[in-house]
Prior knowledge:
The chain is an all-alpha fold. Helices cover 66% and strands 2% of the residues. The radius of gyration is 21 Å and the shape is globular.
Amino acid sequence: MLVTREEMVFDFQGAKLDPVKDKDVIVWAVQQFLYGEITGVQIGHWLYNAPDLESARFLARQAVEEFQHVGNFLRILEILGAPPEKAAWSVRFLATGLMGGDWSEHVALEMALGEGLVLQAFYAMIDTVDEPEIVAILKRGVRQEERHVDFGERQTRKAIAGRPALRRRLLGLALVSLWGVSRLDAFMKKRLPKDHPALKRLPDLVRHSVRIAELRLTRIGLTDAPISSMSAARKLALVAEAYAGKLVFGLASWVLSVLLLPLRLLGLAGPKRLTDTYLSDPLVVGGGRLGAAAEDDPSDAGEQVGPGGSPAGHGAAARA
Ligand SMILES: [Fe+2]
Ligand SMILES: [Fe+2]
């Protein structure tokens, strides 16, 4: 990752969440994470639209991992003695309603930025929840989430290389997401108890997470100047340009899809997919790295758990 775990972790100064006394707040957080992991179904869309074989293979593996995480969070709810329940409207909207419009939006906004923010929340849970089995489950999951964020960062860099307009558009869209996250700060200040050693620090965690996300966007190369030094007018201009670009692009794609419909019905003029491009794909041309061994990651041999505490798979072996 372009931002290290050391930079990302927030110092709770030893404050803890008790699985009995603070059960409600932990359960609430886990319900939101569970929904987030279920949105792993969206990977199916990106797999079908993957630009190359390397990305397709990564996404296939990621889908398996996200559904292992579903098992992880169901197990955590079981430990806490709480049933799965509906996630908050805002979380459902952020995770599903704001799904990326194209590959570059997916890797930049959902993987690098979105999964990066979720990763910070996982680190916070690991540092605060005072229950060893829950912490052990979360620790196994974050290794995989770190890889997802890393992939998002690398793919975003690749997508914006030599494309300044796309770079500005992604930055404008990212600013909107970050503005939404930063609003949580005021919401938490109003709702959370001010005398709880861990919960009273959550608004600071939100501010820290936004700062780290801005650092990530800078290191990816979406901006030269730090976002914190940008004027409100500059940010507004970037957001306006991003949404105007999305509107024009959306309209142009719609017109094109109507005009090309007769050709598409004949199987012509559709988007290029791996089934059209695989013979010139760098992995196929390069050869030699397509065996199962190339995907194995010894650091990921920990088992994921399903409800009831039974192992749902064994790292790389479960993905085979
Ligand atoms: Fe996940
Ligand atoms: Fe993930």
